[in-house]
Amino acid sequence: MPIEMNSQEKIWKHRDRKTQLTHWALWFFGTALFVWCWQLVSEKTEWFFVLDAPAIAADIGSRMVPPRWEYIDKLWVPLWDTLNIATLGTLLALVLAVPVAFLAARNTSPSPTLLRPIALLVIVSSRSINSLIWSLLLVSILGPGVLAGIIAIALRSIGFVAKLLYEAIEEIDENQVEAIKATGASRSQVIAYGIVPQILPTFVGVSVFRWDINIRESTVLGLVGAGGIGLQLQASLNILAWPQVTLILLMIFLTVLFSEWLSAKARHAII
Amino acid sequence: MLELKKLGKRYRTGDHALKEVDLSVPAGQVLALIGPSGAGKSTLIRCINRLVEPTSGDVLLHGESLTRLRGGGLRKARRRIGMIFQEYALVERLSVMENVLSGRLGYVGFWASYFRRFPQSDIDTAFSLLDRVGLEPMADKRADELSGGQRQRVGIARALIQNPELLLVDEPTASLDPKTSRQIMRLITELCTEHKLAAIINIHDVALAQMFAQRIVGLQAGSIVYDGDPEGLTPDVLTQIYGEEDWTAVRKRQSSDSDQDVTDLEENL
User: Fold this and answer.
1) Which of B175 and B101 is assigned the larger pLDDT?
2) With an 8 Å Cβ cutoff, are B102 and A192 in contact?
3) Averaged over A47-70, what is the pLDDT?
4) pLDDT tens readout for residues B117-138
5) N or C: which terminal CB in chain B sees fewer CB atoms within 10 Å?
6) DSSP character for B168?
7) Helices marked H in B65-205 — which ranges?
8) Of B158, B188, B29, residue with least CA distance to B82
9) Smallest Cβ distance to A175: which of B76, B82, B89?
10) Nearest-neighbour CA in chain A from B94: distance (Å)
11) For the purposes of burial, counting CB atoms within 10 Å of the CB of A59, is it exposed (0-12), middle (13-18) or buried (19 or more)?
């Protein structure tokens, strides 16, 4: 109780004595834990390699410049593949995520006891597995190539899009839905007139954002054989062709920059 | 035309919002439902078009029971009952025209409504209604660009385009300034006369209720405690509905009320 009586006056403090002590104890144990962990990490580090690191980094750095510009002829196709993986994967995810979102939202789910938990499970499992791991699995099932990448991106994105979308559905203004219901509209008309206009800005924003993320994710999928520019990166790293690696990193950087610019434009247009 | 028989609603929280309400509304009558907050006014009108499910009793529209309807039957019944809301409840991101036409959703199929292909007769009616409520130039504006009074006019047009027999009006003026409130109430009552509609109007403002309604029903803790002429609302009756208060202020205002100088008097309530 932060208010105490002291002779005649009422004393007000932010925290009472007990809360104050708890805070102190928590800070103390937190700091002790940090120091202990630091020591543990320090013991298990080969300091010889760490001390060597600047020299090695400088060595690789010097071998990385200048980039091998003529290698770019071999990058256009993988780069196009990367863009396609991200875009088609996002589109596939959107198609699948919309029904999942409507099943998962408390106010639109047709069966809160059966279908809603299933939809939530789909969302959680999709979100908990990284697209690189999805690719590993899919490459062994489908074989290496762009298709594995597209599906990996889609599987990963369903959860992300569906989660943000179902949260938007749960936060809509129910008055507008009630008004459409009161006109005698059918269930699907209530969704089309009462709900869709309210969640459309979120839907477009989330889609563009996810596409932006997927561009970045799809650049690495090639590392495990799922197509795109990552394949080239992997090949160049394997033969220690550092000037090629530089060029690839530069191209990835420019692609991501382009996608950021495009998604910023798109978001600006809808808001 | 409309008959409520021992209509009751008990919410899952245990709230007994309506207790065996009996009420009969003849065709063309404008009825004001007054009562303190929490008296069950909103619940009562929402039980009629089943936005809230009544837990006991029955609602008869032209002798047909509405409480047992499901699916398509319920939707057909809702088409005959227009509703006007307190916060207008327009779909904010749709245009004025789309909002008005959404009143026809019960009459057109899903794909026709999805692609906004409403019959020309509906579009004609929408334009004439917008003209009637004074908003024809606004047809292409988005609903969230309008002022409160304009939005409520769109809400009125949306209810009327259903071609209803009964209007349910939930606190139409609660979010509006006194002058706009009067204009909206006048518009609603005029339109009821023009279209020979019966209406149940939930309203906080006793003076407005007395001014525009032919009959007043007072609700208190889920039961009807007054049912009669606007003139019969004596201070005693008001005390019975709302509890103890100095009601002479209301009486004074009522006698000196005119349309131009209402703003300063409105502050009494």
Assistant:
1) B101
2) no
3) 86
4) 999 999 999 999 999 999 989 9
5) C
6) E
7) 71-79, 96-101, 110-114, 120-132, 148-160, 178-194
8) B158
9) B89
10) 7
11) exposed
CATH topology of domain B2-80+164-266: Rossmann fold (3.40.50)
* CB B167, CB B1: distance < 8 Å: no
pLDDT tens-digit map of A194-251: 999 999 989 988 998 899 899 888 888 888 888 888 888 888 888 888 888 899 999 9
Supply the pLDDT for residue A88.
Answer: 95
List chain B residues with CB under 8 Å of A186.
75, 105, 110
Residues of A in contact with B105 (CB under 8 A): 180, 183-186, 189, 193
Q: Testing the interface with A: which of B53, B91, B95 to mutate, by most A Cβ within 10 A? A: B91
Cis omega (within 30 of 0) on the bond before B235? Answer: no
For chain A, where are the E strands, in sequence order? 3-6, 9-12
Please give the model's pTM, rounded to 2 decimal places. Answer: 0.80
A16 confidence band (pLDDT: 50, 70, 90)? confident
Residue of A nearest to B89 (CA): A176
Q: How far apart are CA B142 and CA B97, in angstroms?
A: 9
Does the distance separating the beta carbons of A180 and B102 come in below 8 Å?
A: yes
Report whether pLDDT(B246) > 80. Answer: no
Q: Where are the domains of chain B?
A: 2-80+164-266, 95-163
Tell me if A175 and B49 make a contact (CB, 8 A cut-off). Answer: no
Residues of A with Cβ-Cβ distance to B85 under 8 angstroms: 175, 178-179
Residue contact B77–A184, C-beta within 8 A? yes
Q: What percent of chain A is predicted at pLDDT more than 70?
A: 98
Q: Which of A180, A184, A189 sits opposite B76 (nearest CB)?
A: A184
The pLDDT of A5-15, averaged and rounded, is 76
